[in-house]
Amino acid sequence: MEFIEAYDEPVSKSTQSVFQPWIVCLAAALFFFYEFIQGNMFASIADNIMQDFNIQVDKMAYLSSIYYLSNVVFLFVAGMLLDRLSTKKTMLFAMLLCVLSTFILAHTQSFAMALLCRFVTGIGSAFCFLGPIRIASRWFPPSRMAMITGSIVTIAMSGGMLAQYPLTKLVVSLGWRDSLSLVGWLGVSMLFVMMIFIKDKPAGVVLPEYSKGNFRSIAKLAYLNTQNIRAALYTSLMNMSVAVFGAMLGSLYLIQRLDVSKEEAAMVNSMLFLGAIVGGPFMGWLSDKMGLRVLPMKLGAIASLVTILCIMYMPVSLGVMEVLFFCLGLFTAAQIISYALVAESCPPAMTATAVSLVSILTQGGYIVYQNLFSIVLLHAGTNKIVNNVPIYSLQAYQSAAILFPIGICIALFLLFRLKETFCKRSMDAL
Asked: Which of 194, 346, 370, 410 is the most exposed place for a label (fewest CB within 10 A)?
């Protein structure tokens, strides 16, 4: 079967400004930034949610992970839609769904309605990473895609960092509902910026045409490719600390681990995202510079394993823990390299579809890891209720956190016998 790619290298400087590709891609990345606020804000409002809806950590995990459940379900079609429809229009509609759901969640008194809002937000977020990657693949050459992917992830991690200490301070001052309304208005402003600056393709470029018969063949090539599956599982497992600590329970764990205030714990937790902000483009640049994908992924996994063991077991101060969380974010950012590896392992006409597999397993990991962590947490130790908020012991947290080093070891094992692409697309070798 032949795949037709209308655009593989950037058009000449005479037909576009030097900065336009960056402007377009950064505007598209705002969607990913906004969704990282959505996906990780429960670390700052988990206790408020449990108190307001009178629930424990298991129901809290349902509310957090249902976002990822709908995300995973719709990722199966998101890649196909983005490869065929206007990427800009699809992203704008998805962003609108997320913004409207945020406003409703901020005002609902029903836990069932809160679940529905998070489910709808997850539908929209299925397009938040694939969209910018699809846009970037049309505006930048393959040799720069790891760095561009790292830059897009960096912008997203900035949103995750904003959802930690800054949002925590806002919640303390205004309450979680008013704070969520402000997040909604932030989304409205970003929607207008995206509408103005995103462009589907460079001027003069003709996008590929697809026949209906290609749909099943493309899906089979993307989702049943062993190379893609191993790389996607690696990314999912390396992202476990962000899925659990960054997105839901990091601050509550740190309160028990360090005996600090909620604000101090949120500050430490935000360092996880700061590390990823630095690590995303650095790991992408390092991989592009080396001309290798698999080796820097292995080094990132080994460094992450050492760091998480220090976080769990080494006696540390608040300042040292901040450094360790920064390092964890920095080293686990090696996961972004797998997006470039998967894109290079498949024909360019199916970029979004292939990369969607990575997102499916990564977002699916949020569902598995958050619920598994909460189950172990519930049964591993005692808990008490203070001001209608369940408090879990450090012993329980430590027992649940053993999932992290196990996951990283599995991720490292998956890299062995993974085919190196040497920063070239599969069609380049044909």
From this structure: 410
Fold of 20-202+223-422: Growth Hormone; Chain: A; (1.20.1250)
Cα separation, 397 vs 206, in Å, equals: 54
* 378, 58 Cβ separation under 8 angstroms: yes
Parse the chain into domains and list their residue ranges: 20-202+223-422
- Return the H-helix or E-strand segment holding 389: strand 389-392
List the structure tokens of 84. Answer: 């065929």
**Strand 383-386 and strand 389-392: pairing?**
antiparallel
365-392 in b/e form (b: 16+ CB < 10 A) is bbbbbbebbbebbbebbeeeeeeebbeb
**Using CA atoms, how far apart are residues 307 and 302, in angstroms rounded to an integer?**
9
For residue 383, the surrounding DSSP H or E stretch is strand 383-386
Place of tokens 């390396």: 238
pLDDT digits over 297-340, tens only? 999 999 999 999 999 999 999 999 999 999 999 999 999 899 88
φ, ψ (nearest 5 deg) of residue 200: -60, -35
CA angle 128, 28, 271 (to 5 degrees): 70
State the DSSP code for 244.
I
